[in-house]
Amino acid sequence: MAICGRKSSRYPLFYCMLIIISLAGKQSFGQVNEPANTPVYDYLYRMAQKGLIEWTDYQLPLDRTAITSALTELADSAADLSKTELAELKFHLQEYSFDSKPPGEGHVLFKRDSSNRFRAAMYEKGGVKIFLDPITGIQRFMSSGKKNTQYFSGVRVAGYFGKGWGFNFFSKMLRKKVTLSIETGRSLLLRGLFLPYQTSGS
Hints:
The chain is α+β, with helices and mostly antiparallel strands. The protein has 5 helices and 9 strands, in the order αβαβαααβββββββ. It has helices at residues 13-24, 39-49, 64-75, 83-95, 97-100, and strands at 33-34, 62-63, 106-112, 118-125, 128-143, 146-161, 165-181, 187-193, 198-201. Strands 3, 4, 5, 6, 7, 8 and 9 form a 7-stranded antiparallel β-sheet that branches. Strands 1-2 form a two-stranded antiparallel ribbon. The protein is globular.
């Protein structure tokens, strides 16, 4: 009987896709790297500047477990944080609770997990921990004298298979606005589809 296929009722298409996604992700021996543009890096850098933690981020991205350890260390100095910094700490601890807790049993689908963090999907069983989250964002850059704005959306799937293997997979769809400067000082706005589908692992 085929593992993935219409004739297989034992292995639904969802699990086949999950296998493919996990194999496409970057193997990192229990490590799941957090993208370099994630806000937690700036927060931890500021806390390090205040002398509350030791933090080295000269080479990004870093492992999520390293981020979790730094946040846990910072929680011991909560009395030295401002109200805003405490709120940020609470947010980040909630975000990275997935990595700090031992694997449990169960799943979450479009609701909050045990740390009150909303998840599109999460699965835990027998040392396996996997989450799926929607992603969306915007970035601006210059290219050939043109101002470009990219909007992206997609999904992120990441997690651990026991203590020895971690994976991190992104699938993004990008759209781009191009603003062209003209001699009159006005601008011409062009809309178009940019890179209809891009898949990348990190």
